[in-house]
Design goal:
This protein is mainly alpha-helical. The protein has 7 helices and no strands. Helices cover 83% and strands 0% of the residues.
Length: 194
């Protein structure tokens, strides 16, 4: 539990890096909307980071249940729910807003994403994870507790895949343009090669 706690806490900055990557992928299409997505991503995982730090404490409380008076135990759990679990609800609302701006920016066009990426936004994937949990609890029980991590693993992986495809396309296109230029300008071809 303690090891998992520290792994989760030190993993939070990678979300910031991931949303910076998404910002760069969206920026060409609409810098303002891309900035909103980036800002919401930072806000979401700042709040998510605060929330994740509470989980080990909750685990400790549950393990000590038999050592704590029942009324005191219930007060602690109620207080925990108010203070920490409310952050998850706020996080989900922010992810909903982020997803709307993410999809809108992609659908407006001229980003590094293909249009189909709009459907793979975080809120649709989050709903899919919980739907899987209800349809197939034997599988869902493993991914629902870490739903936001599963969602972002998919989003960031697809984003990196599209970056790779875009980069390869640009490289091949630049290489082709360079060859065409050299072939049409024979003087240059004596001094330059692609």
């Amino acid at each position: 539990m303690i090891t998992g706690h520290f792994l989760a806490v030190f993993g939070v900055p990678f979300y910031f890096l991931g949303y910076y990557h998404i910002y760069k992928m969206l920026e060409k299409g609409n810098k303002k909307l891309a900035s909103i997505v980036f800002g919401l991503g930072i806000l979401a995982f700042t709040i998510g980071g605060f929330w994740i730090t509470s989980r080990a404490f909750l685990g400790t409380i549950v393990h000590l249940q038999n050592d704590i008076d029942t009324k005191v135990y219930q007060k602690i759990l109620d207080n925990y729910t108010l203070i920490s679990e409310s952050l998850v609800q706020i996080l989900r609302v922010i992810i909903l807003l982020l997803s709307v701006f993410f999809s809108t920016t992609i659908l407006k066009g001229d980003t590094y994403y293909k249009k189909w990426m709009a459907i793979f936004n975080p809120i649709v994937l989050l709903i899919s994870v919980f739907t899987l949990y209800f349809i197939s609890p034997e599988i869902g029980k493993y991914i629902a507790p870490i739903a936001m991590n599963v969602v972002h693993f998919i989003v960031f992986s697809l984003s990196l895949y599209q970056l790779k495809k875009t980069t390869l396309y640009q490289y091949e296109n630049n290489k082709k343009n360079c060859r065409n230029y050299i072939n049409t300008n024979s003087i240059i071809s004596n001094y330059c090669s692609c």
